[in-house]
Specification:
GO molecular function: acireductone synthase activity; magnesium ion binding
Strand content: 5-15%
CATH class of the largest domain: Alpha Beta
InterPro entries: Enolase-ppase_E1, HAD-like_sf, HAD_sf
Helix content: 40-55%
Strand order of the largest sheet: 7-6-5-8-9-10
Order of helices and strands: HEEEHEEHHHHHEHEHEHEEE
Protein name: Acireductone synthase
CATH superfamily of the largest domain: HAD superfamily/HAD-like
Pfam families: Hydrolase
Number of strands: 11
CATH topology of the largest domain: Rossmann fold
Keywords: Amino-acid biosynthesis, Hydrolase, Magnesium, Metal-binding, Methionine biosynthesis, Signal
Number of helices: 10
Structural class: alpha/beta
Length: about 350
């Protein structure tokens, strides 16, 4: 997987990553020339990843991995197991992000700290814009609700001064609340929307690059290409749709993966542990039966909610993911290479 989060990789490093054998390739401009044929580095990365995906399938080299954080617990996937989209009559694939397409560490070690570090600057510079005023109104409503339910809400909410107070005082209170929400990993729209705005600054400046596991891009390309577009892929995450588009639109080294994605869902459709959310997604996607939708997640409660709504479910087992309950009853995969068209 790519744990590169800052844009620090040089062009020469990118070239060597794509094709390390200097005797059989040359780097010219932003192209690699291979035996007389010129192919972009990004295309070679995707081609090599696709070849690796098929090689792993042929060898049956998909092995179970630890399902927890070094506590010795395991959630075993059958060696060589492959889930067939065609056999199971799947028309839509809905993907979680954290722990499924992307390492949890990218979110906790890169995205969250970036938002925390830059929230004050963002609010100060954009305070009087309509967009930020709308974000502040959403935060104010969330804080008011948190204060009413103080004993049930993680993290201490700080009352916000009235809207006609000094801007510095309002921003101080906003920053305190946002930092508390980030520390508590709150899955609320007010926080997620503001984080998406802040992350855009990082993606636009090149400070942040999207991160996906190596097996994800070739799988997305195969699902899209091999089925002639009959199987469509979607994202459902607690992060805002803006944040989702930023992550998949700016990956290293695969570039923009949004061409393989049909739409993005966030918690405006409902919470990810609420079965009603998956019913709403089914209604939005237009397939005849919810069982024609495959949902991939690393979270047991989300898997249960999706199953209750009638969706097919696979649980993603990746290094660093939380352990699953014993006898959880779900099929698991350790790589998207285990999903065939």
């Amino acid at each position: 997987m790519f744990l590169l989060a800052a844009a620090s990789t040089s062009a020469s490093t990118s070239a060597s990553c794509c094709f390390p054998d200097a005797a059989s390739s040359r780097y010219r401009g932003n192209k690699l020339e291979l035996r007389g044929a010129s192919t972009s580095c990004r295309q070679l990365s995707l081609l090599q990843a696709s070849n690796n995906l098929h090689r792993r399938r042929r060898l049956g080299a998909v092995r179970a991995v630890t399902g927890g954080n070094g506590d010795g617990s395991t959630n075993l996937a059958p060696p060589g197991y492959t889930y067939s989209l065609k056999t199971n009559d799947i028309r839509c694939v809905v993907l979680d992000i954290e722990g499924t397409t992307t390492p949890i560490s990218f979110v906790t070690d890169v995205l969250f700290p970036y938002a925390r570090k830059n929230v004050r600057e963002h609010l100060t510079e954009t305070y009087h814009t309509p967009q930020t005023q709308a974000d502040i109104a959403l935060l104010r409503a969330q804080v008011d609700q948190d204060l009413l339910l103080a004993d049930q809400v993680p993290g201490a909410a700080v009352p916000l001064p009235p809207p006609d107070s000094a801007v510095d005082q309002i921003i101080d209170a906003l920053v305190a609340n946002v930092e508390a929400m980030i520390d508590a990993d709150r899955k609320v729209a007010a926080l997620k929307q503001l984080q998406g705005r802040i992350w855009r600054r990082g993606f636009d400046s090149g400070e942040i690059k999207g991160v996906v596991y190596d097996d994800v891009p070739p799988a997305l390309a195969e699902w899209h290409g091999a089925t002639g577009g009959l199987i469509k892929t979607y994202i459902y995450s607690s992060g805002s749709r803006e944040a989702q588009r930023l992550i998949f639109g700016n990956t290293t080294p695969y570039g923009d993966l949004r061409k393989y994605l049909s739409a993005f869902f966030d918690t405006n459709v409902g919470g990810k542990r609420d079965s009603g959310s998956y019913y709403e997604i089914w209604q939005s996607l237009g397939v005849d039966r919810p069982s024609q939708i495959l949902f991939l997640t690393d979270v047991y409660q989300e898997a249960t909610a999706a199953k209750d709504a009638g969706l097919e479910v696979l649980i993603s087992i990746r290094p660093g993911n939380a352990p699953l309950p014993k006898n959880h009853g779900f099929q698991t995969i350790t790589s998207f290479a285990q999903i065939s068209t």
